[in-house]
Specification:
homodimer, 465 residues, CBS-domain, Tetracycline Repressor, domain 2, 3-stranded mixed beta sheet, MgtE_transporter (chains A, B), Magnesium transporter MgtE (chains A, B), magnesium (chains A, B), CBS_dom_sf (chains A, B)
Chain lengths: 465, 465
């Protein structure tokens, strides 16, 4: 019963390890879920880790190994002799096995392969051939198949023989001689049916499937949309080649979400081979690379603002008050634009809107941003009146008038920034890109330019003659 | 077979509706997954919608109704007479039923209740009593229970009787006389076992469960962590009161991700009753409210920058070149700070780091931001040299020297901004808050202040005497 927290259990296990109580430890560990054993192995030091790992059966080792971090996997791979390791490897889930295999160096791969039985070997090589971000890259070949002509009793017998090594068999897929997918039956169907019923009377023929080359994000979204436990993956001949499980779909959705959030902040997502690396595990230089690209691009794009400012240097020289409220204009525009971009990117990603809705979105953003303009201009007016009450202005200008022009610029800036923020993701999507690349820093930089143009156009027209 | 896209199928259905071919339509519809029927109903106009809805059986209606948008649900509720509606209502999934019921006005609730049978009525009232963001708020009471003393045959017979209305019975929960949860068996266990085996020999007693008042985000994370199809929910007496399904957990994770992303951009998440509203459905005023709070707070906080600028107005007056590079310093600081905040917030949310790792995180961010500083300062130096080559400087100052001081300020600004961005989420989490509230606009505003202080301190010390 694990309602109590896993930290208490870790303390108990740690105590047993420190005292070398391996038998007692073994008894405790066998009651824990795999993920908690993994967490324990990740925490203890390396020598103990190997000892603890050796306490498990071959099958448990395979399950645990599949969930370990890349570093620990690699450490165990190098510590065990190839023959012992091959036994663990053969018992792993096919998708996790292929993932691990793909991360090995070529010479390590060839050192391992001779120890692996032929069936597993060809499975690993087949699965390793798919792109990591495709259905093939995340599917498993551990599924149960039955035939249309079987009775429920025959189907159940086949599942009993096929399944012990297969964790997930809540669906059994019905295929023909050529492995072409005809439909599926659920375990619930089989349990509720009579033993002499025929599979062909139970089969669900209206099913959803995805092509093996489909993008993994779409696969995950299908599983989410249709509330599936697993999605069958077929090749171009409609033959069943694998399944993607609901928990792997959840991992994909979380990973894609991290990417979207990072892109939004101008951070490059992790490279493919580092996808599972955590914040602390990723080396400083890789963190640096993830961030520097946008920062440098923006610094270069920022030259445009620099040029505009340079052009208006004289104006600034005459009225220093203009310089004082430049940051307010830039910040507010950047914030409003980023907000609009965020909601539009998210709505696109959740399928709530498409590029065809551009007119509706524009109309909505105009109304929202006009409301925002009214509030923010009012605050800006108060701000200018309070902060600059003692400023010396050129002849003929009152502070109220200057404040009014600054607020007008701010109002226009909020509306244009919101439209730019909402519009850019739509344009990127229209041309087939990922809307999330329209990073908030990019929007900030762009609306800096428009903001300065609005500000100085109004200022030179109404304040400086 | 629905490998082909759902738009084609929609076109066919639309044609049949327009021609009033109800029989043919009925035949086509019954092959479609519920979610696609829902999508069709959402698209057709309201009169046809009710006609199409009426084509389905009571059970199908209940399933479809549960997935419809709030607006359509409400429309149907008002169109059908209370007696017909009550039949649909009774057949709904218990969690969806309670959600719908909770959104009705009190007088609508009391108008409906008399038509509902007693068992459903008390179930609805019980489920409606839980907080929407707790386990109780998202759980369903549709689960199968068996008893320890049963044989597999008896258990299967009980599931057959209990289950037809229950979509999800991949686990059967083992409870005692008092409904206290003892463990579970999977359908796979039951299928693989012999019919005369005892449940007590198959039961998994090491299971994970959550309290009915547990936060729904934690519940979803448990389901994700332990790769469960459903998580049993227990009350303080350890009695089984419901289960949360894997697909509902996925919905929670997606919703929480939207909230995190919005918070990061200074947008208030939707209010509870609007949680499922899409971008286009949410009224302009609610969009406005979501965004205005932060924008106004930031505008007010921005007064601090205003005050600092006001303080250094004389310095700006003497050297206008300082005003030219102020935006660069502010923007770069804001971007670097937001990046650091994003990765730390995400790492906290994924459980990759905890507040105890603050020293490691700080050390990492110092190194990353120093690398970034070197790059960005180099670019800034080039920028100043190119843009300000003809600027008239006060006596005794060379452009190279001024550029150096500006770059030094930028370098210090990038490091402090990164540390502020990484540190704030940790501090918020330490005090029990949600780190995602440390919105990027807030960081932008804060590092504006630190940036100006750094900039003008260096400038007054080294450039203006």
């Amino acid at each position: 019963m694990t309602v109590t927290n896993s930290e208490q259990r870790y303390e108990i296990v740690k105590g047993l390890i420190d005292q070398g109580e391996w038998d007692a430890l073994s008894g405790v560990l066998e009651k824990l879920p795999t993920i908690e054993i993994v967490e324990i192995l990740e925490k203890v030091d390396e020598d103990h880790m190997v000892t603890v790992f050796s306490l498990f059966s071959k099958k448990e080792k395979a399950q645990i190994f599949g969930e370990l971090s890349h570093d620990l996997q690699y450490f165990i791979f190098n510590t065990l002799d190839k023959r012992s390791f091959s036994k663990v490897f053969e018992d792993m889930r096919s998708d996790e096995r292929a993932d691990f295999y793909q991360r090995l160096e070529v010479d390590e791969q060839s050192a391992l392969l001779p120890y692996i039985n032929k069936k597993v070997r060809s499975n690993v090589i087949e699965l390793s051939g798919y792109e990591a971000d495709s259905a093939g890259g995340i599917m498993t070949t551990d599924f149960a198949t039955v035939r249309n002509w079987m009775t429920v009793r025959e189907a159940v017998d086949k599942i009993k023989v096929d399944s012990p090594g297969k964790k997930m068999i809540y669906y059994a897929y019905v295929v023909d001689n050529e492995k072409v997918l005809l439909g599926f039956v659920t375990l619930k169907d089989l349990i509720i049916a009579d033993l002499q019923d025929k599979i062909e009377d139970l089969i669900h023929v209206d099913f959803v499937a995805a092509d093996v080359h489909e993008d993994r994000e779409n696969v995950a979204k299908m599983i989410e949309k249709y509330n599936l436990l697993a999605l069958p993956i077929i090749n171009s001949d409609r033959k069943l080649v694998g399944i993607v499980r609901h928990d792997d779909a959840m991992d994909v959705i979380v990973a894609e979400q991290t990417e979207d959030m990072e892109r939004l902040m101008g951070i490059q997502p992790n490279a493919e081979e580092d996808e599972d690396e955590s914040y602390l595990d990723l080396p400083v230089v890789k963190h640096f690379k993830k961030r520097v690209i946008w920062l440098v691009s923006l610094a270069i794009m920022g030259m445009i603002s620099g040029l505009i400012l340079h052009h208006f240097e004289e104006a600034l020289d005459k009225m220093v008050i203009l310089a004082l409220y430049m940051p307010m204009l830039a910040d507010t525009g950047g914030n409003a634009g980023s907000q609009a971009a965020t909601v539009v990117i998210r709505a696109l990603s959740l399928g709530e809107v498409t590029t065809k809705d551009w007119a509706k979105i524009t109309f909505k953003e105009v109304r929202i941003s006009m409301l925002l303009s009214i509030c923010l201009s009012a605050i800006a007016y108060i701000k200018v009146s309070l902060l600059s009450f003692d400023t010396v202005l050129p002849d003929g200008l009152s502070l109220a008038y200057v404040a009014f022009i600054i607020c007008l610029a701010l109002a226009i800036q909020v509306v244009t920034s919101s439209l730019i923020g909402a519009g850019l993701p739509l344009i990127v999507r229209k041309f087939g890109g990922d809307p999330a690349v329209v990073a908030s820093p990019a929007i900030t930089t762009i609306v800096d330019v428009t903001g300065l143009l609005i500000y100085f156009s109004l200022a030179t027209t109404f304040l400086l003659h």
